[in-house]
Amino acid sequence: MLIPHPSMLLASQNTNMEGQQLNLEGPSPNQSNIPSEFVWPDNEKPCLEPPKLKIPPIDMKGFLSGDPETVSAICAEVNEACRKHGFFLVVNHGVDKKLIDQAHKLIDTFFCMELPEKQKLQRKLGEHCGYANSFIGRFSSKLPWKETLSFHYSPDNKTVEDYFLNSMGEEFRHFGSLFQEYCEVMSNLSLEIMELLGMSLGVGRECFRDFFEKNESVMRLNYYPPCQKPELALGTGPHCDPTSLTVLHQDQVEGLQVFVDGRWCSVAPKEDAFVVNIGDTFMALSNGIFKSCLHRAVVNNKIVRKSLAFFLCPNKDKVVTPPKDLITMENPKKYPDFTWPSLLEFTQLHYRSDPETLDAFAKWLLEKNK
């Protein structure tokens, strides 16, 4: 089976010259070099044998049991992890393994289609969803070695089903139905995790759950083809998610890395677990107490890597402001109030999100509102 490479597409030379195209010829299976646009600087190149991150998985069934001692212990673990690096795993989450397996199979089905078929869902200029290769057109260098398909989800309607049906036709109805179900399950799991985060911060179960009840979220399918020079490229560059919460399921191919204690650590795939990381929006909601997680993905030269990422986002009209209990003399309010679309606008105007994004956004917002 021919594995498509992200570099087979056309890329804009820079983000301000959308009309000028650069043809990046895809590497053949035996090619020793990769296009320079995919080569990362020496100080950002991947470490292919990093230490493993050791972190206890969080038992969601135990948390939802209501047993005071169990809940207290789980909340303490989550609090420690989120203050330090914003990352943890959840197990006993109740998500049907068959649903996860079917979703992974459909990733293969979509990304192994011919390019013209995938381009029926091509991401349009200025939009955040659709099919994309390496975010070509937005960036001109340090391109990530991957393909993605992103689509919107919101409760109480059939956004996902309609997206596939309207864009790809009747034969893709099953794609829409499956991912509609998957997103609904991820939304429910995210709300349970929000209860956990609320308890861990001492503001109660309902505080953040209520805030995200009518979420307007994004689902992304990630596909990382083999790369002949994995020591030069990255599947996804170092970044913090601007969203609130990411719930990720990896396949069994290693590649996710988290920055902890000044070094990159690998997150070993765990079939029965979801990876959860805090994003910038929830960092603001916690008044900076919980940290947005800095992470990246590496690639390999042997096998495709796939992942399913659900990005929980608040309703566009919700004002992101921390609960009063999290604003104290010792920890005064760190960021101005904002809505999710304004942070998204900021991240689209600038390069990649990093640990300084929220501070830069706060300054930008104050200048914009003068």
UniProtKB/TrEMBL annotation:
Tell me the ranges covered by the Fe2OG dioxygenase domain, including all copies.
214-314
Q: Which Pfam families does this entry report, sorted A to Z? A: 2OG-FeII_Oxy, DIOX_N
- Native source species: Phaseolus coccineus
Keywords from the named record = Iron, Metal-binding, Oxidoreductase
The cross-references to InterPro entries, in alphabetical order and at most eight, read: DIOX_N (IPR026992), IPNS-like_FE2OG_OXY (IPR044861), IPNS-like_sf (IPR027443), Iron_ascorbate_oxido_reductase (IPR050231), Oxoglu/Fe-dep_dioxygenase_dom (IPR005123)
Protein's recorded name: Fe2OG dioxygenase domain-containing protein
> Which GO terms of the molecular function aspect are on file?
gibberellin 20-oxidase activity; metal ion binding
Q: Which reaction does it catalyse?
A: gibberellin A12 + 2 2-oxoglutarate + 3 O2 + H(+) = gibberellin A9 + 2 succinate + 3 CO2 + 2 H2O
**Family stated for the protein in its record:** Belongs to the iron/ascorbate-dependent oxidoreductase family. GA20OX subfamily.
Essential cofactor(s): L-ascorbate
